[in-house]
């Protein structure tokens, strides 16, 4: 039994708290709103984000970080990527002993192009952390909180820590794998949100399953292309945090990224969409970050590029589709190259 702080009381932070609570850990959930924290403590319910779910009794909610972090062994970060740095700057004020950091957020920071584990590395001094891990995979909070079967993956540069996280979260309905490819796991989980916006957009435009399949498949190709350039193992993109999460996000009405894309395809502006959603749509900022990263590294990412033009430069979704369909003819399968070697060298025996 461990004492775990979960920072972020939105849909995913609350669902992960429920999993930890079910596993008999002592959970200290941090949120910004006093009203929400009181609802959780008094009525065992997070009305705004997961109204139908009764939370276990061993989850205690707080609004102040110093109480939340008191004597915890593990800190699970589940705030939107845009809030990660400011939250970590606060966290570092209250840690007296090193803890294991786990994050479950899916985004890339614009301008710095950093993955969330790299932001943690920058903001938390080494003497305050034992290790950094990520938990990612196809997992809508709405289904996890109803205790429906779900599989995810934990990655860390330190496999002992990844296994510790696996043991913390794993139960009969929440199965956790491990994968040492931290770059691939974080890139897959973050960039699938871009493609999910595109998949929603094709639906909004009135297109069908062919367009969705095309976008998912060619989307995965460009995610893997960038991931390999950054040093990821290509096989990770065929796993839960790549293909798995792409499927769940591009085909589910639960997905905020898909829903945002759907509204954009129907002609709403980005501002109208964000007003209506009231929840985080990570893919928007990650589209900007990934567009910049692709330009910087010289990786061809045509879908990301078109979505960037739609989201930030008023290109119409129709024009973006015309552009993508009219690209110069090419082979489907590319030579696989990543890092500084042959991908086959990176296969498990
Ligand atoms: N929902 C899901 O199924 C899954 C989500 N994720 C990832 O988890 C992360 C969190 O998403 P999710 O919980 O769904 O988001 P939600 O939109 O459901 O909730 C966002 C939460 O973050 C809080 N928040 C927003 N801005 C700040 C800030 N500046 N400082 C501190 N807290 C802030 C909100 O607080 P307040 O209510 O006070 O505004 C709220 O508690 C994202 O990276 C997402 O990609 C990953 C897997 C599944
Ligand atoms: O990452 C998710 C499921 O794995 C949730 O996706 P959305 O943020 O699009 O809802």
From TrEMBL:
GO terms for biological process: carbohydrate metabolic process; glycerol-3-phosphate biosynthetic process; glycerol-3-phosphate catabolic process; glycerophospholipid metabolic process; phospholipid biosynthetic process. InterPro entries: 6-PGluconate_DH-like_C_sf (IPR008927), 6PGD_dom2 (IPR013328), G3P_DH_NAD-dep (IPR006168), G3P_DH_NAD-dep_C (IPR006109), G3P_DH_NAD-dep_N (IPR011128), NAD(P)-bd_dom_sf (IPR036291). It catalyses: sn-glycerol 3-phosphate + NADP(+) = dihydroxyacetone phosphate + NADPH + H(+); sn-glycerol 3-phosphate + NAD(+) = dihydroxyacetone phosphate + NADH + H(+). Sn-glycerol 3-phosphate binds at residues 106, 137, 139, 192, 245, 255-257. The active site is at 192 (proton acceptor). Residues 3-161 form the Glycerol-3-phosphate dehydrogenase NAD-dependent N-terminal domain. It is an enzyme of class 1 (oxidoreductase). Pfam families: NAD_Gly3P_dh_C (PF07479), NAD_Gly3P_dh_N (PF01210). GO terms for cellular component: cytosol. Its main location: cytoplasm. Coiled coil: none annotated. NADPH binds at residues 11-12, 32, 49, 106, 141, 256, 280, 282. Transmembrane segments: none annotated. Pathway: Membrane lipid metabolism; glycerophospholipid metabolism. GO terms for molecular function: glycerol-3-phosphate dehydrogenase (NAD+) activity; glycerol-3-phosphate dehydrogenase (NADP+) activity; NAD binding. Its EC number is 1.1.1.94. It is found in: Cytoplasm. Substrate binds at residues 106, 256-257. It comes from the Bacteria. Keywords: Cytoplasm, Lipid biosynthesis, Lipid metabolism, NAD, NADP, Nucleotide-binding, Oxidoreductase, Phospholipid biosynthesis, Phospholipid metabolism. Belongs to the NAD-dependent glycerol-3-phosphate dehydrogenase family. Catalyzes the reduction of the glycolytic intermediate dihydroxyacetone phosphate (DHAP) to sn-glycerol 3-phosphate (G3P), the key precursor for phospholipid synthesis. This is Glycerol-3-phosphate dehydrogenase [NAD(P)+]. It comes from Salipaludibacillus neizhouensis. The lineage of its organism: Bacteria, Bacillati, Bacillota, Bacilli, Bacillales. The gene is gpsA.
